[in-house]
Design a protein that fits this description.
The chain has about 425 residues and is of the alpha/beta class. It has 2 domains: about 230 residues, Spore Coat Polysaccharide Biosynthesis Protein SpsA, Chain A (Alpha-Beta Complex); about 180 residues, Hexapeptide repeat proteins (UDP N-Acetylglucosamine Acyltransferase, domain 1), CATH 2.160.10.10. Helix content is about 15%, strand content about 30%. It has 7 helices and 40 strands. Strand 2 and strand 3 form a beta hairpin. Helix 5 packs across helix 6.
């Protein structure tokens, strides 16, 4: 059986991180999100994978190549225009000649989830289902495609139902085993209300025509839809919790390490640092002295963390410089950012309410008590810059010294604090 991964989307909800890279290349736990999916496919026995690409296609191809580094054979097909999951799926028709597994490329899934879907497919072979799909229980099913079951048979899929009309807390998990009959169903699929060709509409067509569609319920803790900036932190946490400790770099005398910590080759941790795992420190990075690196922090390659900094539950991408006496908590920092001394990310609201963020011009409740700043690539800050909880800073922006940032800053913006000098009359 072959696997197909849909990795064409632009990831608008993850801006500004996706302003310079496709969401499938965002690092979580030191590896791109797509790499975790491909590793899970390999671990469940897949060797041939087709990746459907569009936004950032060249970057994805350059990173993964032919897949040989991962023990896979990877081929690519370009979706000319992102017009829905059914439109992307139909591009696989020349590639697959029999039943195939398909997964969305913005998921964080473990090998156990893929095995469970394959086991359900095998168990249903007597009834010859045309689709075997994964479902997962969630707290807010109205944000997803809600799946209605009779036993293991799917009788309906309702896309983003109105609150109060939800019939189930099980939602479409975006992992399927399809027979090749799905391509005929796609050809009969009409545009949805959103103007897209959606695979759930194709599945609806099969159900209406009496074709058996079965579902299996996968554990919520082994599946994550990485659609919003705060989901990156959860995915990062899950990766680090599975990490095995390994110290290949230089750890000076006077460093205290507790829990699973990876210090990669050519990295250096200076005296006085206190590191509480799980923590990942990438190749060539330089930490300290006298830093406190707290759990669930991923530090990329060639990162410099200055004296007396504290980093907690954050993703720090490659080539970042964090000046001394700074604090970053529950934050995502893009590549090449330079933070002046004393830069602070506030991550907790004064009124103790959950943090809200603006996502695609809508204010969204993250559901998190703590959420810091999300920066695109190549942001610079002056000394003493303070970011309020849930703020986003666009790529290439400069934030001047002593500025308190209360709202999102677009890309390519210079934000400074105006100061007036008044002379006293004598």
């Amino acid at each position: 059986m072959k696997a197909v991964v849909l990795a064409a989307g632009e990831g608008w909800r993850l801006r500004p991180v996706t302003s310079t890279k496709p969401k499938h290349l965002i690092p979580v736990g030191g590896k791109p999100l797509l790499a975790h999916i491909l590793n899970s496919l390999r671990e469940t026995g897949f060797r041939e994978v087709l990746v459907v690409v569009h936004y950032g296609a060249d970057k994805i191809k350059d990173y993964f190549g032919d897949g040989s580094r991962l023990g896979l054979k990877i081929e690519y097909v370009h979706q000319p225009k992102v017009t829905g999951t059914a439109d992307a799926t139909k591009l696989a028709e020349p590639y697959v000649k029999e039943d195939f597994l398909l997964t969305y490329g913005d998921l964080f899934i473990t090998p156990e989830v893929i095995r469970q879907v394959l086991d359900a497919y095998a168990a249903g072979s007597d009834s010859k289902p045309v689709v075997t799909m994964a479902t997962v229980p969630v707290d807010h099913p109205e944000h997803y495609g809600v799946v209605v079951l009779e036993g293991s048979l799917v009788i309906d899929i309702i896309e983003k139902p109105a609150p109060g009309t939800v019939k189930s807390n099980l939602v479409n998990a975006g992992i399927y085993v399809f027979s090749t009959k799905i391509f005929d169903a796609i050809r009969r699929t009409n545009l949805s209300m959103r103007g897209e060709l959606e695979i759930t509409e194709s599945i609806h067509h099969l159900i209406r025509n009496g074709r058996p569609v079965i579902a299996t319920k996968v554990p919520r803790g082994k599946w994550l839809d990485v659609g919003n900036p705060w989901d990156l932190l959860e995915a990062n946490k899950r990766v680090l919790m599975q990490m095995k400790p390994e110290v290949s770099g230089i750890v000076e005398d006077g460093v205290h390490i507790h829990g699973p910590v990876v210090v990669a080759e050519d990295a250096r941790v200076r005296s006085g640092a206190y590191i509480e795992g799980p923590v990942l420190i990438g190749e060539g990075s330089d930490i300290g002295p006298n830093c406190h690196i707290r759990p669930f922090t991923s530090i990329g390659r060639n990162v410099r963390i200055g004296n007396a900094c504290e980093i907690k539950n954050s993703i720090i991408m490659d080539d970042v410089k964090v000046g001394h006496l700074s604090y970053l908590g529950d934050s995502v920092i893009g590549e090449g950012c330079i933070l002046g001394a004393g830069s602070i990310s506030a991550n907790y609201r004064f009124d103790s309410k959950t943090v809200k963020m603006k996502v695609m011009d809508k204010v969204v409740d993250t559901g998190r008590a703590k959420m810091g700043v999300v920066m695109g690539d190549h942001v610079k800050t002056g000394v003493g810059t303070l970011f309020m909880p849930g703020i986003k800073i666009g790529c290439n922006s400069w934030i001047g010294p002593n500025v308190v940032v209360y709202r999102d800053v677009p890309s390519d913006t210079i934000l400074t604090l105006r100061q007036d000098i008044l002379r006293r009359a004598r």
